[in-house]
Amino acid sequence: MSAHVSDHDDTDAPIATAGAATLRVAGTRGPAFAAPLVEYLLRLGDDRLVLGHRLSEWCGHGPILEEDIAMSNMALDLVGHASMFLGLAGEVEGQGRDADALAYLREGVQYRNALLVELPCGDFGFTMVRQFLFDAYSVLLLDALAGCGQPAVAALAAKSLKEDKYHLRHSSEWVVRLGDGTAESHSRVQQSVDELWRYTGELFEHDVIDDAVAADGIAIDRAALFSRWESMVRDVMQRATLTIPDGAVMASGGRRGRHTEYLGHLLTVMQSVARAHPGATW
Amino acid sequence: MLTRESVYETLATVMDPEVPVISVVELGIIREVDVVEDRVTVTVTPTYSGCPAMREIEDDIRTALLGAGAHEVTVLMTFAPAWTTDWIGAEAREKLRAYGIAPPGRAEQGGLITLTRRRTAVPCPFCGSSDTRLQSEFGSTACKAIHVCNACRQPFDEFKAI
To answer: Could you tell me if B17 and B58 are in contact, meaning their C-beta atoms sit under 8 angstroms apart?
Structure first.
C-alpha cells in the first residue's frame, strides 16, 4: 500500500489511500474552522472523549478493585457524553459525519480539547487531581448550559450533568483523602497540583467562538464560571491541606488545535482499529 | 391489530438485560409510543449516557414488537427530559429489592453538589438492617453503587438515584 504524506501543502491533501477509501485531511497549517456551533460542540465532545480515554487506560490497573471499577465507570460516562456532543456536532455540520467519524477519523490538529485532559495519567494522585479540576469545571459549565437557549445543547448538558455530579464527588473526596493523608500521598498530590495548575486557565478562556454562539442562544459568562470554580476548588484544596501555586503562566492552544505531543500518541491508540479497518462494524 | 395498549403490553415483557427483573416500561425509559396501522414508533431515553446495554435494549424492543405483529418498528432516542430513577414505580422497586438490589432513593433536585455530603445509610435488601456502609458509588454497571451490610455481612448493589 502506498501512502503519500504532504508536509508543506496548506490545501486539503490525500494522506493515505486504501482501496476505495481515501482519507483527506487538511494541510499542516491546520484546518479551516467549522461553523461556531460545530466548533463549540467539538470542544465539549473532545474534552470528554480524550479524558474518558485517559481514564479508560486505568482499566485493569487501578490501585484497588473498587477504584478500577469507578474509573472505568467514569470513563464510560464521559465517552457517552462525548458521543452525544459529537453526534450533535455532526448533525449541525450536516456533512454526514457521525460521532464515530468525528472521533476516529480526525487528526490531532482537528481536535478541540483543552490540553489538561490529554496529559498522560501519571500516578493515581495525578489522575484524580486532574479529574477533580475538570469535574468542578464540567459540573459548573453543564449546569449553566442546561439553562441555555439552544434546546439540543441544553438537553445534552442536563443529561451529562447528572452523571458528572457523581464524578465530582468521587474525585473531590480523593483529593481530600490523598492531600490530607500520609506525607507521601500529600507530597505527590501537591506536586500534581503544581504541575496541573498551568493547564486550568485554558478552560476559562473566552474567544470568538464563545462570542459567535451567542447567536445560537449560548452565552456562558466564563469569568463568572471561573470565580465559582475557583471558590469550589479552593475549598477542597484547603480541606486537603494543599496549596494552589501562585502566578502560574497558563498554557493554552488546544481549542485551536495546537496540542501537546501526548495527544498524537493517544489518538494513535484510540483510532488504530478504525483506521486499520475503515468502515468496519461489529 | 396493534394498539397503543397492546404495544405497551409487549414492551412490558422486554426486560432490562442487566437487571432482568424489571421491564423497560418499569425502568421508565419508554417515553412515547405511536401506532399507525402496523407501524410502531417507540421513543426511548437512555438511562446512563454510556450504558452499553442501550443498543441491546433497542434490538430487544424491535424483536419483541416484530414478534407481536408489527410490520415496521422505529426506535427513536430522546435526551430531554433526562432520565431519572424517580420514574421507577413502587412495584418495580419492590422487584429490585427482592432481586437483591436496594432500590434508588429520591434523586436530588436542582442545586449543585455538596462535596462532602454524608449519605443516609441504604437499607440492606437481604436482612433489612440500616447498619450498612457505602463501599463505592460506582459498581458493576453504570447504574449501581456497592454497599456492605454490617449486620449480615453481605455486600449488595444499590440502584443509585440519579
So the answer is: no
Prediction pTM value: 0.89
Residues A165, B80: C-beta atoms closer than 8 Å: no
Which single residue is written with the C-alpha cell 432481586? B99
Return the residue in A44, A159, A225 with the most chain B beta carbons within 10 A, the one to mutate for interface testing: A159
- The complex's ipTM works out to 0.89
Site of grid cell 474534552: A47
Burial of B29 (C-beta count, 10 Å sphere; 0-12/13-18/19+): buried
Lookup: cell for A188:
505527590
H helix runs in chain A, sequence order: 36-56, 65-93, 99-104, 115-118, 124-145, 151-179, 183-196, 208-212, 222-239, 261-270, 272-276
The beta-carbon neighbor of A76 closest among B50, B84, B146 is: B50
% residues pLDDT > 90 (chain B): 78
Starting at the edge strand found earlier in the chain, the sheet holding B39-44 runs B30-36, B39-44, B72-77
Spatial contact of B53 and B18, defined as CB atoms under 8 Å apart = yes
Question: Is omega for the bond preceding B81 within 30 degrees of 0, making it cis?
Answer: yes
Reduced to 3 states (helix: H, G, I; strand: E, B; else coil), residue B65 is helix
Burial label for B99, CB within 10 Å (0-12, 13-18, 19+), is middle
